[in-house]
C-alpha cells in the first residue's frame, strides 16, 4: 500500500463525506442540535459508589438519538477495506456519543474534566477467531487519588451486542482484586472465580476507572456476528495530565485536529495492532509535529 494516495484521500473531508453521505463531518449545525442526556443526582451518586468500590458500572441501552446500527456498519466497511478503525472518528456521530454522556462523566470526574487523547474502535470477528485486547489496566494504580477516587476513567460503548462468544469485556472488580490500587498491580493476584463477564446489548454504557484489570475475550466461531465497540478516556481536572493534548469534552475537534488525533491513536497503540510500514508512514504524516488544538 502506497501511503501517498491514502494521505491525500484521508486528509480530505469531502472524501469522507462521499464515502458515507448519511453521516456528518464537521457539520456544526448538526452537532449543535444534539444535547447531553439527562441524569438525576441519586443515579449519579449510585454510579460514583460503584466506581469507587467495584471500579466499574454498566448501564442498559440508552436513547442515543444517533444511528448506532449505521455507525457499526461504517466500522465494518473500514475493516473490510483494511483501514485503521479509529478513522470512524472523522464522523461527528462518534464524538457525539461521548458528548451525550457529558452529565454522566462530569458527575463522576467533577466539573472541568478533560478528554484524554486516548480512544479506539474495535471489530472482533468470531469468524476469524479475533480477540479483544489482552488483560491490562489502562493506567494502573497511579490513576487513583489517595482516597481511592479515580483520576481518570474509560467509557466503552458497544455498537453491536457483545456476548461471551464474540468477545465481550471481562473485568476483575476492584473489591475482588488484591493487587488493585497497589504498586504490585502488574502481578495478578485475583481468583479465577472473581472474574466477571460483562455481556452488553448494543447501545449500552460500560465505564471503569483506569486502575481495574479488564480485557476483551477471545471470540468463538460458534458466533457469527462481530463485536463492534468504541472507547474514549477522560480525566479529572484536578490530576496532572495523563497524556497530551487534553481537550475540553464539550468542544468537538474540527476535522483537521481530529484527523491528527486519529493518527496519534494509530501510532500510540501500535503495540496492540502491528502496523505495516505504509500505514505507519501515513499516520506519521497525518499526526505531524505539533499536536495542539490551536
Structural overview:
The chain is an alpha+beta fold. The protein has helices at 3-10, 13-19, 28-32, 41-53, 68-81, 92-99, 102-109, 255-268, 277-287; strands spanning 56-59, 114-124, 152-158, 169-172, 196-198, 205-209, 213-216, 227-235. A five-stranded antiparallel β-sheet has the order 1-6-3-8-2. It has a three-stranded antiparallel β-sheet with strand order 5-4-7, with no helix packed on it. Helix 1 (3-10) packs parallel to helix 9 and helix 8 (255-268) crosses helix 9. The chain is globular, with a radius of gyration of 19 Å.
Keywords, please?
five-stranded antiparallel sheet; three-stranded antiparallel sheet; 294 residues; 9 helices; alpha+beta
Mass-distribution shape: globular
Strand proportion: 15-25%
Beta strands, count: 8
Record the strand order, biggest sheet: 1-6-3-8-2
Structural class: alpha+beta
Q: Gap between N and C termini, in Å?
A: 32 Å
Total count of helical runs of at least 4 residues: 9
Rg over alpha carbons: 19 Å
What does this entry show, briefly?
The chain is of the alpha+beta class and 294 residues long.
Give the topology.
Layout: H1 3-10, H2 13-19, H3 28-32, H4 41-53, E1 56-59, H5 68-81, H6 92-99, H7 102-109, E2 114-124, E3 152-158, E4 169-172, E5 196-198, E6 205-209, E7 213-216, E8 227-235, H8 255-268, H9 277-287
Antiparallel strand pairs: 1-6, 2-8, 3-6, 3-8, 4-5, 4-7
